[in-house]
């Protein structure tokens, strides 16, 4: 709470040394430690309600939709028929909110390790937590790795909405996790994981992608823009069991009436394709080994 005493919250992390984002705070709405992490919700002056885990901004009322829509619809629209979806993490409810909107999705299974995040989001972040009310959703609390060991050949798409690779989310960036996801996928399945920032975390991204290449036939990296994440950008690692999957070409292109009916504000087929157009330095850094 020391940062809040000045009227500002400042996000400090070893993952982006020498810099921070600061938000002016109007009110601290919640602050407690769960079994797993420090959880805070603030009312910020510029970005509305903001969820902060272990001192790192997870979502804000103003800009969360760009991340939630992209981490969800990039993989869902890269799959020909994503009937059954698993979400690992995502305790704020944003990915669930988006996944249940997709017309092809029949069931969404969610496994979140920290029940307090879900409870707080339902109470203080209703704009995120709407998906929890859907009859399509089946919610479990527990470790995502252990959950997938019990669910083989079951899901069309697995989305990992994790915090950064420190604290409880560390295991979600390890090679054995991506191997487990592969075994939990049906034939033709696709995964999408939070993929860090292409300006600051090329080593982390390259390690994850190289690990994925051992278990998946197609691996790619896309990104979205979001002002309250470090560098104003966050990426996604996508992988498919099949070879030759071009993630930059959506298998399903949602029409403008469909986008309007689903309430999407960031995602479109054009934005989907553009998400995989990477700067030269990123393409070179993440290229598959020859």
Automatic annotation (TrEMBL):
Pathway: Amine and polyamine biosynthesis; spermidine biosynthesis; spermidine from putrescine: step 1/1. It holds the Pfam family Spermine_synth. One of its GO terms (molecular function) is spermidine synthase activity. CDD domains: AdoMet_MTases. NCBIfam families: PRK00811.1, speE. The keyword Transferase applies. It catalyses: S-adenosyl 3-(methylsulfanyl)propylamine + putrescine = S-methyl-5'-thioadenosine + spermidine + H(+). Transmembrane segments: none annotated. The keyword rRNA-binding does not apply. The gene is Srm_1. Its EC number is 2.5.1.16. GO terms for cellular component: cytosol. Catalyzes the production of spermidine from putrescine and decarboxylated S-adenosylmethionine (dcSAM). Has a strong preference for putrescine as substrate, and has very low activity towards 1,3-diaminopropane. Has extremely low activity towards spermidine. One of its GO terms (biological process) is spermidine biosynthetic process. Belongs to the spermidine/spermine synthase family. This is Spermidine synthase. Residues 6-241 form the PABS domain. InterPro entries: PABS (IPR030374), PABS_CS (IPR030373), SAM-dependent_MTases_sf (IPR029063), Spermi_synthase (IPR001045), Spermidine_synt_N (IPR035246), Spermidine_synt_N_sf (IPR037163). It comes from the Eukaryota. The lineage of its organism: Eukaryota, Metazoa, Ecdysozoa, Arthropoda, Crustacea. HAMAP family: Spermidine_synth (MF_00198). The active site is at 161 (proton acceptor). Homodimer or homotetramer. Keywords: Polyamine biosynthesis, Transferase.
């Amino acid at each position: 709470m020391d940062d809040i005493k000045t009227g500002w919250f400042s996000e400090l992390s070893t993952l982006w040394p020498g810099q921070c984002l600061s938000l002016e705070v109007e009110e601290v709405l919640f602050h407690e430690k769960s079994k797993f992490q420090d959880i805070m919700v603030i009312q910020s002056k510029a970005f509305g309600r903001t969820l902060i885990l272990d001192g790192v901004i997870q979502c804000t009322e103003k800009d969360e939709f760009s991340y939630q829509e992209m981490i969800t619809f990039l993989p869902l629209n890269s799959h020909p028929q994503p009937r059954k979806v698993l979400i690992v993490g995502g305790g704020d409810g944003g990915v669930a909110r988006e996944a249940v909107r997709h017309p092809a999705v029949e069931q969404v299974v969610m496994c979140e390790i920290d029940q307090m995040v879900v409870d707080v989001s339902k109470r203080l972040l209703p704009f995120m937590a709407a998906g929890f009310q859907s009859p399509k959703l089946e919610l479990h609390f527990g470790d995502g790795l252990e959950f997938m060991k019990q669910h083989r050949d079951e899901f069309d798409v697995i989305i990992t909405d994790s915090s950064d690779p420190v604290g409880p989310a560390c295991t979600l960036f390890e090679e054995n996790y991506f191997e487990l996801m592969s075994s939990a996928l049906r034939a033709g399945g696709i995964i999408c994981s939070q993929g860090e920032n292409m300006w600051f975390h090329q080593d982390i991204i390259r390690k994850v992608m190289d690990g994925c290449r051992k278990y998946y036939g197609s691996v790619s990296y896309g990104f979205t823009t979001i002002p309250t994440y470090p560098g104003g950008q966050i990426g996604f690692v996508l992988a498919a069991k099949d070879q030759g999957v071009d993630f930059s070409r959506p298998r399903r292109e949602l029409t403008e009436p469909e986008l309007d009916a689903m309430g999407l504000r960031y995602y479109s087929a054009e934005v989907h394709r553009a998400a995989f157009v990477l700067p030269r330095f990123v393409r070179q850094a993440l290229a598959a080994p020859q």
